[in-house]
Amino acid sequence: MKLLEINDLHASIDGKEILKGINLEINAGEVHAIMGPNGSGKSTLSAVLVGNPAYEVTRGTIRFNGKDVLAMSPEERSREGMFLSFQYPVEIPGVSMVNFMRAAVNEHRKHRGLPQLTASEFLKLMREKRAIVELDNKLANRSVNEGFSGGEKKRNEIFQMAMLEPTLSILDETDSGLDIDALRIVADGVNKLKTPETSVIVITHYQRLLDYIKPDIVHVLYKGRIVKTSGPELALELEEKGYDWIKKELGE
Amino acid sequence: MTKPSDMNASPERQYVDLFRQVRPMLARHSAPEMDALRDEAFSFFEAKGFPTLKDEAYRYTDLRLKFAIDYGMNLNRLEVKVDPYKAFRCDVPNLSTSLFFVVNDTFCARPEHLTALPSGVELMSLREAAAKHPSLLASRYGKLAGQSQDSLTAFNTAFVEDGVFLYVPDNVVVEKPIQLINVMSSTVDMMANRRILIIIGENAQAKLLVCDHADGEANYLSTQVAEIYVGRNSVFDYYELEETTANTTRVANTYLSQDASSNVLVNGVTLTNGTTRNHVNVMLEGENAEIMLGGIATVDRRQHVDNNTVIQHRVPRCTSHELFKYVLDDEATGAFAGKVRVNPGAQKTSSQQTNKNLCLTKQARMYAQPQLEIYADDVKCSHGATVGQLDENAVFYMRQRGLSKKEAMNLLMFAFVNEVVDFIRMDALKDRLHLLVEKRFRGELDRCGGCSKCKYE
Fold it and tell me: Could you read off the pLDDT of A173-186 as tens digits, one per residue?
């Protein structure tokens, strides 16, 4: 069953067109990797999917579970099950992780017609999910991302993913800035959260993360378009040969 | 009720005429120690008039129109008909405080609350204080305020008839915070001139919370002058919390004198209001005195808050911290002026001032004026002022997790002002403020809880 359908998607920022006709379909349960050289539009695609208001969609459609995503606010997209692990998680001084997550989880529950969690239920949930990414209790009690190391921030992203149980997770360069141990913890976390119904888009420059999170399909994004789609072997080939051969194929 | 007359003349005119007309009445209704300063104060006011935008200290707050309103004043001391303990519940309930009221300008206390105060602590009307402690009143009343060149302070001294007197003797620790609720309550437009005199002895401790409420739809104007003396080695907290209406104008002047090694915390919160102008003047008179001066203003619609502060380091080795935060929505305006003056010879002064402001709309305006005057060379002084918007990246981040835009903004605004709430040293007030500030940002503070009739236009 189709979870995400992107059709002829064009998007721009400050009048500059970045995405120039993206077509992409993701079925429930699939893991897709999106690779591509710097500036090809990978992060823009993730931002547009979750409705970052800095970007303007000028053409095309996005459907998620059959619903028109472009008609939804960022928060509605989240509550419908779309999650972005930010490349650069935002520090929010003064807002505690606990309050932030309680508000988020309860919004999601309200959306699904579930009652609000009691304080003790919520803390129990926090404990369980923290264990998945080995996030220290101290971090969970601090302000959102404030003073977190690069690795802690990424673990905190996956912790939030665990709390919200999205059906589509977009990992935007979740491997950047991670040492090999942190990478494994983060990847293990993602794998533990994977179910046959949930899908993942992994945006990365490197094969390294894909050793842990195995993609079903690999796409190459270049100059705002998906120019190549293949199996997991494509990622290995890119790791080995770079992008020049693809550019050649495109006649550049 | 006595009404100022002749509305068409300059705003000063009606008060000048009124003063002459009611001068004998003012004398009859006030303590001789208060009446003694009246004529001089009146002459000063008459010569200077109301402040205009040309006065540096009032550059952003024009009060003349507010004074032009035809208010009634209860100069005849008509008795307050309501029992405030029954009629008003403050929105800071469950504070384990000793609770007292000032209705318009009249002090109201239940005997059982008074007897609950530690022995030697005196809380009463100024009039009563004149009978019981004439020498204290004579030596302290008007002495700090009298050093000021402020015409509205003089206006208050000229018209005030009564007020509140708090005296904590040497070596007495008042454990329970004392709460004083100022209520403006009238069916017609009303002006009240309030006065507070606080004397904290040596090695003493006390905490006072003063809440301002306004009842109903009438136009109110209150002038308040507080004089606070804090003795050697004493610790005193002075909190002010305003939750009034769009039709209320508050003009408060607070003069604080600190002796050696005293530690004072002054924190003023404006949650809802009309037009507010607070002036706090801190005189550090003894070495190693420490002042923490803070404030929060949450304003929207066309509300206006001006906090004008002066900290005078008169002797060496004193410390001052200042932290003011404003959140301005709609077409609200805010002003903050923070003057820190380090006198010649006040070496080893440490002073830090921070003023941070959020403008939520393009129409909201904030005027920030940090001002350092340093006449000593071995000091550590810093200041910083910022005016900005909410972090859009943070708002988006939170929306991506499912929070509505409004909720995300609320959490951010809440976090923003919490820095000021967190240095409050009265736990019940801190908890209550967390809740009130949250309610304020959610728009649920349109009515101040107990004052059932009170709401915005």
Answer: 999 888 889 899 99
